[in-house]
Structure formats: C-alpha cells, structure tokens
Design a protein that fits this description.
506 residues; six-stranded mixed beta sheet; four-stranded mixed beta sheet; 9 helices
C-alpha cells in the first residue's frame, strides 16, 4: 500500500522503530527482551554465517626419501625369469711363480670363476577413489590424480627399503637362547622368576616393528583382487625361553644372545613363563630389563617358524653383503655391556678405529676403497662426536666470516678420509639413510678400480618392466589404480661392500 507513497512508508518505518521492545503486543509474540540481539562471530569455523577460509589443494606433508633408488642406475632386462652373469673372481689363484728356465715355457695359472643369478620380482601397490569422494572434492582438488601420485610415491618408498635390505634368501634360523643375569638393584621387580624370549629381526622386521604394534612374523595379505599372499615379516624363529630368579623389590635382569649373522635388531619378550610379552626392540644383541613389559604382543602368538625371509622380495644390498660367501667385509661388534653394547672407538687422531680396520681390510683383500658410508642418524651423530674428541682438535681448521652477526654451534661430519688407497688417501661421503637401523653402518662402492672389468655399474636395478600404472576397469562405483614394476637388484661385486653391525650407542 506504500508503493505509491514513499513518504508514508518512511513514516511507518519510523513508528515501528519507535515501538518499545517491551511492548505487550511483542511480549505476546515472545519477542520481548531482544533489544540486544545482533549477529556475532561463530564459536567454531564451521558454524554461523562465517566464511570457511580453506585453501585450495591438499598439502602433501610426508617425506619421500629414496636416496639409493635415486642413485642406482636402472637398466632394461631381456626377458627370462632371472638376471644371470658370470665373473672371473681371481687370476693365478694358486700363486704360480713366474720365473722360467732357458728354452722352457712357464707354468699354467689357475683362474677362478663364479656364476650368479638374481630372480626378477614384481612390486606394486594399489589405491582407489570412490565416486562420492570425487564428488565431494570438486572445486578443492583432483583426488584421482592424488591417488595415482601417492601410489607411485608409496611404491618408491617400499622399493627403497627393499633395495637396502630386502631378504628373500638369508634365513636367520632360530634365535639363540638368551643368557640372563639378575641384579637386586636397578629395577622394579619383586621376588620371583622372570622368563625371557628373544627374536632376531631382519631389516623388514626392524622397520615395521614397534612396542605398540608388535613385530610381524607370518603376514597374510588380502589383495585388491581378493587373492591372498602369505610371506615372512622379517622375524626369525623365537628362542627357547630362559629363566632367572630375581630378588626384589628393586630387581633387574641383564639379557643377551649370541649375535645372529644377518640380524639387524632383536625383539625381547619377558614375563611369567608362558606369558612373555614384548618389552623392547634393540639394535644390539642385549637389553637391560628393569620392569614389566610395556607392549601387548605375546611371544606365544608368533608361532615357532622362521619367518625372516620374504619370497616376494629381492635381496637388497645388506642381504647380499651379509650372505655367507659374499666376500663382503662383515664386522660384528662384541656384545659388551648388556643394554649398552660396544660403541665405536675414537683413535685420538681424527679417525674411528673400527672404520679404519674395515677400510684396511678392504684394501688388503681387494685393493679397493669404498666411496660412501651409509649411517643411521644415531651413528651419524656418534661419528661426529668421536672424530672431534681427543687430540684430534688440532687437525681441524675453522673459518668464520666477518659479516656474521652471530656464531652458530654444532658440527656434523660429512666426509671421512680413507688412508688405504692407491692415491695415498681417498675421501668417503657420509650419508644418513632413512631406513638404515641404528647400530648398523653400510659401506658401498660405486666404481671398481680394476682395468677392463666389463662392469658399467657396480650395482644396478635391472627391470623386465619399469614403473607402469593401471586404471582398472570399473567393477563398482570406485576408481581403482595400481602402480607396478618388475625388477631385481644386481650387485656385480659384493666384496666392494662392508658392514659394521651390532654397534652400541655412544
């Protein structure tokens, strides 16, 4: 009725604004007392009339660290089920003398040869995106592309661990029975008998083991197509239980086992006989037990079989070096003090006694020098501390820029001088590997110094089929993706590797 009379409309609005909010008519409508009502900021980012400030695109906050995969060359295979090669491993191995008498011929040398094979293995992983997930992500991100990308990255991460320590052939066997020593101090045990069981672990067992989740023995995996694969999770057969009498109320127990060739860690179960529970996973072959086990996995749940190998994996660098007859230099540190082990030793002249011993042996036996030392972060820190301690201080030169307005602390050793080489000294890179367990140091060699050795790459990934992706035909309202490769790690000369293992922290 105010369409043709703007002045009347304005007057009516003024009258409405002038009505007191405690007017009885408004009270009958339940509107009295709202004179302070207004819009205010919501109490949560998703309530009220509030804009949701969501940046487009999901952030990828996970590491994809694959140093060996990035470093090792990839070459195509030629079919077949395995890569095979032959090598001359020694000339004049009998030490035939070379002097000859007048008019006569010399003696006949003996040459040693060896045949090598490495079976191809398929690797792969799958991901999927259902239709509703794609609908919901419209305008935010391409979840199908993310599924494909994360699948490839996951495959590369798994491949890196397999290149380092995949194990298809080095069975750890049955873990030795622990040796126990009880003390009436240092712990919280009351009077009683403690039973201890130990399980040696391959790299796969160390990487995937934890107190909360336990260690993996037999793995049964249901695949995307409904098929099932059964394989070992990297755990040796458990030891026989050892028992010891403990005097409380502050009792503790020191436990150790004979070091298992090829083991990179040890899982310890303890408690009442028959009810032992996972309490520790150590990189060395000993532990000090001070109280009740904190885990939940029981030793009885593991079964009795050795499940340290995985038939679906190829042998990685650590396994190829640790296998009997490889020729690699393997040094297992002594058991030492239970729970502490035997740490590396500074030589007081800027070096490490055990590392120098390894480098000397590699020179004495094979006349070669490795070029890279791979370490865990623990050993990286310990190397720096050992090298800097003692009388080595005078061997270092520090330079400071006058432009600096502050002095930063901390030193990390990135190189190590090998004194045993034809050049009178060669420099090795020290690199931290994300999957290498504490207590283990790996030495690798990228090039052999031997003439006409017919080896382009000392180690290489030989592929029957390099990375490929499959978008499977629809069988439900879900997009399914698989990323695969078919390959094997070849190492032509395992003696060019060395391993220091069972190294104590300190």
């Amino acid at each position: 009725m105010y369409q043709d009379n703007p002045a009347a409309a304005l007057e009516a609005l003024k009258k409405a604004q002038a009505i007191p909010l405690n007017d009885p008519i408004l009270a009958q409508l339940g509107l009295a007392g709202l004179e302070k009502a207004t819009f205010s900021q919501g109490v949560s980012p998703t309530s009220g009339l509030t804009f949701y400030d969501l940046e487009l695109g999901a952030k990828s906050l996970y590491p994809v660290l694959t140093p060996l995969r990035n470093l090792i060359p990839r070459v195509p295979g030629r079919g077949g089920i395995q890569a095979a090669w032959r090598a001359i491993t020694g000339i004049n191995v009998s030490g035939m003398r070379i002097g000859v008498s007048g008019g006569n011929r010399g003696g006949v040398q003996v040459v040693s040869t060896a045949d090598y094979t490495a079976s191809y293995k398929g690797i792969g992983i799958e991901s999927n995106v259902d239709f509703e997930a794609q609908y919901a992500a419209q305008g935010f991100d391409d979840v199908r592309a993310i599924a494909a990308r994360t699948g490839l990255q996951s495959l590369m991460l798994g491949e890196e661990a397999m290149i380092l320590g995949g194990n298809t052939s080095l069975a750890l066997g049955t873990t030795p029975t622990p040796t126990l020593s009880a003390s009436s101090s240092g712990g919280s045990f009351a009077n009683g008998t403690l039973s201890v069981i130990c399980v040696a672990l391959a790299l796969d067992g160390v990487i995937n083991g934890s107190l909360a989740g336990g260690i993996q023995s037999t793995i049964t995996r249901t695949n995307a197509d409904g098929s099932t694969d059964i394989f070992g999770g990297g755990a040796a057969a458990k030891s026989t239980a050892a028992t010891v009498a403990v005097t409380g109320p502050t009792g503790s127990v020191a436990a150790s086992v004979a070091a298992v060739p090829g083991a990179l860690g040890y899982a310890w179960f303890w408690g009442a006989a028959g009810a032992e529970v996972l309490g520790a996973i150590t990189p060395i072959n000993s532990v000090v037990i001070t109280g009740a086990a904190a885990g939940t996995q029981t030793a009885a749940s593991l079964g009795a079989a050795d499940r340290s190998t995985n038939a679906l994996a190829f042998d990685g660098l650590l396994t190829q070096a640790l296998k009997a007859g490889s020729g690699a230099t393997i040094v297992t540190m002594p058991t030492g003090t239970p729970g502490v082990g035997t740490p590396l030793t500074a030589d007081g002249a800027g070096g490490i006694v055990e590392i120098d011993a390894v480098l000397k042996q590699m020179w004495d036996l094979y006349r070669l020098s490795p070029d890279t030392i791979w370490v865990n972060s623990q050993e990286g820190l310990n190397l720096s501390r050992k090298i800097l301690q003692g009388s080595a201080n005078s061997a270092f030169k520090f330079e400071f820029s006058a432009a600096q307005d502050a002095l930063g602390g901390g030193i990390m050793i990135r190189k190590y001088l090998n004194r045993f080489s034809m050049q009178g000294g060669s420099v090795l890179d020290i690199r931290v590997h994300p999957n290498l367990p504490a207590g283990t140091i790996l030495f690798t060699t990228a090039a052999l110094p031997y003439p006409v050795n017919n080896i382009g790459n000392v180690m290489q990934i030989r592929t029957r089929q390099d990375y490929y992706q499959i978008e499977w035909p629809l069988r439900s309202r879900k997009y399914e993706y698989g990323v695969y490769a078919d390959e094997v790690l070849q190492h032509y000369f395992p003696p060019s590797m060395a391993i220091l293992t069972n190294v104590g922290n300190g």
